[in-house]
Amino acid sequence: MNASHDNSELQELYRDLILDHARKPRNFKRLDNATHTAQGINPLCGDKLRLYLCVDPNDRIIEVGFEGSGCAISMASASLLTETVEDLSVEDADACFGAVTGRLTRQSTDIAAPRNVDLTKLKALDGVREHPSRIKCATLAWHALHAALDPSQSIATTE
Asked: How confident is the model at residue 2, as a pLDDT?
């Protein structure tokens, strides 16, 4: 097998992962017992979501949910976020925000993830780097996460 064939297979797997999460988002639910919440708005694209976190007294995220509507990329990214940050400490989850948004908005994909956090599935979002107008769609949920973890914020916007 040649490298370009391997790369195209990998891109297809990532595309399938994005479509699967967009069609069947994980943790698409309101959490009435949320301790942290934030709204995310992408006015350019029309994506809107509300992220819910249940954080225990030890600053560990024990449950995550989201509601909203938007394009396939924003919904898939939010779904992937929920799977990534559940059971993480607040500090590690916020570090994931920096790693993911940094990876998508910079030229280099060599952005370090927090120790003991697997961001492999999130490589599926790397394709949006080739479409700058879609980066805001992919990072919206992550900005909402950052806002939810910051008591001085409750709304995250991509503008």
From this structure: 53
Count of beta carbons in the 10 Å neighbourhood of residue 79 = 22
Between CA 148 and CA 40, with CA 118 as vertex, the angle to 5 degrees is 25
> Which residues, in sequence order, are bridge partners of residue 69?
48
Q: Cα 50 vs. chain centroid, distance in angstroms?
A: 12
Task: Tell me the C-alpha distance between 40 and 144, whole Å.
Answer: 5
Helix axis angle, 72-85 relative to 3-23, nearest 10°? 90
The DSSP code sequence of 47-116 is EEEEEEEEE-TTSBEEEEEEEEE--HHHHHHHHHHHHHHTT-BHHHHHHHHHHHHHHHHSS---PPPPTT
Residue 24 makes CB contacts below 8 A (sequence gap 6+) with none
pLDDT tens-digit readout, 96-141: 999 999 989 886 666 677 788 888 888 899 888 888 889 999 999 9
- Cα distances (angstroms) measured from residue 75 to each of 3, 12, 64, 144, 152: 31, 19, 14, 13, 25
pLDDT tens digit string along 74-108?
Answer: 999 999 999 999 999 999 999 999 999 998 988 66
- Which domains does the chain carry? 3-157 (3.90.1010.10)
